[in-house]
Amino acid sequence: MDKPDFVWENLSAGMVVGEREITVTAEMVAEHCGALGADRAWYREESPFGGPIAPPMIFINDLLAIYDENFRRFGTIHAKLAYRFHRPARVGERVHQRVTVKDLYVRRGKGWIVSELLVRGEGGDVVCTSLHTSVLSLTRAREG
């Protein structure tokens, strides 16, 4: 399947960009912690949450990964990032991720996109939400 280009015309507010399920593995947690130089016993051993948990920012790159699975994208210029953590993801837990375009707008002659990553746990409860705001190249967008 040929992916569409990541451009203004191929996006719309409310559009679901993509969804996937992944399992949070001990290897993912170890790689994430190694990259950050972060090591907490709760990430490897028992925690008050019923076993090892993942660090809060374990899903930091997943929004862009889902965009890349569904669009031909050449980088993104980030402007803002906001996270809300509802509960820790547990090692071994299968989570569902969905990326949605929350808003598209033009300001000062530049296009902007606000995307949401929603991560739900095995029971359907929310693990975390994040909003990513990026500059988006304009081709035919108009202010207004």
Can you tag this structure with a few keywords?
144 residues, mainly beta, Thiol Ester Dehydrase, Chain A, 5 strands, 14% helix, disordered C terminus
Topology:
Elements lengths: L15 E8 L2 H11 L25 H9 L6 E9 L8 E14 L2 E11 L5 E11 L8
Low-confidence stretches: 140-144
Which structural category fits the helices and strands?
A: mainly beta
| Global morphology | elongated
Name the CATH superfamily classification.
Hotdog Thioesterase
Strand order of the largest sheet: 1-3-4-5-2
- In round numbers, the mean pLDDT is 92
Q: What is the strand tally?
A: 5
- What proportion of the residues form beta strands (DSSP E)? 35-45%
The helix count comes to 2
H/E series, N to C? EHHEEEE
- Report the span from N to C terminus: 35 Å
CATH top level? Alpha Beta
CATH architecture name? Roll
Helical content class:
10-25%
**Which fold does the CATH topology refer to?**
Thiol Ester Dehydrase, Chain A
Count of discrete structural domains:
1
Give the biggest beta sheet: 5 strands, antiparallel
* Radius of gyration computed on alpha carbons: 17 Å
What this model shows, in words?
The chain is mainly beta. It has a single domain (8-136), classed as Thiol Ester Dehydrase, Chain A. The chain is 14% helix and 37% strand. The chain has helices at residues 26-36, 62-70, and strands at residues 16-23, 77-85, 94-107, 110-120, 126-136. Strands 1-3-4-5-2 form a 5-stranded antiparallel beta sheet, covered by helices on one side. The longest helix has 11 residues, at 26-36. It is elongated, with a radius of gyration of 17 Å. The relative contact order is 0.25.
